[in-house]
Amino acid sequence: MTAEIVSIGNELMDGFTVDTHAATMSRILAECGIDCDHRQTVRDDWEVLLAALREALARSDVVITIGGLGPTGDDLTREAIAEAMGEKLVVDEEFEPKLRKFFEDRGFTYTEPQQKQAKRPECGALIDNPYGTAPGVMCEKNGKLAIAMPGPRGEFVPMAEGFVRDFLSQRASGSVIVSRTLRLCGIGESQAETQIKDLMYGEPRIAPYAQVGELHFRITAKAKTREEGVKAVDEAEHKVRERLGEYVYGIDKTTLEQAVLELLKEGKATLAVAESITGGAMGERISSVPGASEVFLGGVISYVQDVKEKLLGVSHETLEKFTPVSDQVAREMAEGIRSRLGSTYSVALTGNAGPTSDVGGRPIGVVYVAVAGPDGTQCTEYKIHGTREDVRRRATQNALVLLRQILLDRGV
């Protein structure tokens, strides 16, 4: 079975939006055992879209479109699919009353443009979209399958990862595919692969995906039933954890900041941050986790020397002798914020993100992360390559990895 993805939208062609949805869909197709041989990106133009769909249907078994299902005049996908497959466009009598009620309950006038979201090719069916008004569309005719999904991320991702994935996995193999992602930190890709190399060549499949400052292993099992698939994935996960368990911080959607906050909660500990190089990014990552206020007390963005002295108590002599980007300053920042906010632990970050050398000539990419806690203060130097944003992002990642390791070592 072969597939083709057609991404639709002027914003994609004009370069204002990066098409990450096509990459997501390509990954899902691969996990379902379906080869994605072609990808197209086209404008919101009737002739261009229709030609793209006809070409895709001629050479692929499955055609997946992304975007163009809304109520406006440039949303042409459902109409183009109907035309390309030689079908009439009809109103779905079951969905249309629900759509009408949705708008009327919110005090909006139900208009003809809105009604078109209830239409589908006569040979097709609608795919439920609990996060928006435009459902997906699925049509099958003459051995060809077309699936249309909405463009907004909050609507596309749940549909693609949910119904569409399940449908395609069963269609492709007559079986169920179960996947789980193990998230690791504190270990490099080559080192991790070396430790589980013998597990990666067989069933279930275990595939590595390097991320910013961490590593993901996706375990994928194909089975006759979901229960069998889950059992196979459970067994594979157990084997991986036997060898790499200390580095596994979570599964699937768990973020590193979530995992660290859970450790702090378990230990009834609190956290504060002092940031220079990251300008609040560390606090933003932590505070983005629901329930963070149970352990996160707050922080200080001490971007200039005077603020480090006045708000964190970093000594003027230390700053003058060692420069703001130094092990000594990072330690005093961490100890200062911990003392002022009364937290169990604190994290401080200082460094040079570029694009030019900082005060004292510190090289671009040098970052110091200090963690202060009941057992004292630990500071680590990192040399990070990349753009300014790369350095800042990796700095917060390294800080969370270091804090997690200290919490685990202490048994928190």
Explain this structure.
A hairpin with a 2-residue loop joins strand 10 and strand 11 (214-223). The chain is 42% helix and 26% strand. The chain is built from 15 helices and 17 strands. The mean pLDDT is 93. Helix 10 (256-266) packs parallel to helix 15 (388-410). The strands form 4 sheets. A 6-stranded mixed sheet has the order 2-1-3-8-7-6, sandwiched between helices. Strands 14-13-15-16-17 form a 5-stranded mixed sheet, sandwiched between helices. The longest helix is centred in the last third of the chain and has 23 residues, at 388-410. The chain has 3 domains: 2-173, Molybdenum Cofactor Biosythetic Enzyme, Chain A (3-Layer(aba) Sandwich), CATH 3.40.980.10; 176-251, Alpha-Beta Plaits, CATH 3.30.70.2860; 256-410, Alpha-Beta Complex (Maf protein). It starts with a strand and ends with a helix. With 412 residues, it is of the alpha/beta class.
Which helices and strands occur, and which strands form pairs?
Layout: E1 2-8, H1 10-13, H2 20-31, E2 35-42, H3 46-59, E3 62-66, H4 77-84, E4 89-91, H5 96-105, H6 112-115, E5 119-121, E6 124-127, E7 136-141, E8 144-149, H7 153-173, E9 176-184, H8 189-196, E10 205-211, E11 214-223, H9 226-244, E12 248-251, H10 256-266, E13 271-275, H11 281-287, E14 296-301, H12 305-312, H13 316-322, H14 327-341, E15 345-351, E16 366-373, E17 376-383, H15 388-410
Helix pairs in contact: 2-7, 3-4, 10-15
Kindly list the characteristics that best describe this protein.
412 residues; alpha/beta; Molybdenum Cofactor Biosythetic Enzyme, Chain A; Alpha-Beta Plaits; Maf protein; 3 domains; six-stranded mixed sheet; five-stranded mixed sheet; 17 strands; 42% helix; elongated
